[in-house]
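All the exercises in this workshop are built on plain-text protein records. There is nothing in a record beyond a sequence line and a structure line. A learned vocabulary of local backbone shapes supplies the integers on the structure line. The question running through the whole workshop is how a given chain folds. Here is such a record, shown just as it appears in the course material:

***
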Amino acid sequence: MKKVFFFLVTVLFSVTAMSQVNFSGSWKLNTSKSELGAEFTMSPKEVIVTQSGNDLKVEKHSEFQGQEINTTNKYTLDGKECINIGFMESEQKSTAVWADDKKSLKITTKFSMGDMGEEMSFVEVYSMNEGNLSIEASTSSSFGEMSETGVYDKQ
């Protein structure tokens, strides 16, 4: 009986340890905990995440030059390519891949900037840190590179 109990506890611990983080919730940017760009930030002021099964929906509320910008992107959590519509109706191709320990999720997005034909890459790594959502974002193109970390408080 002790062996069966030990086996069940071990299996339960293994399943719990390998379960993926759920980022669901409404999150507000905490600028004092974040590492943002000095002149410009990629980090939205609010993020609403809905995560269920293999699906992830991320709604971002940003402000740029006094205008509200809201975007919603949908991803699958199996590493398959997802297509969303982005800035200036550009087609964004993304993949979402879990880290081996299932504690962070890396979303890599590639898109062209309209008529300029400029290819851009955008990488976000979602993780939880002391109850806060952390999004490490970086972008790369011929315009240069930029990276920052937005830390969000749950609402």
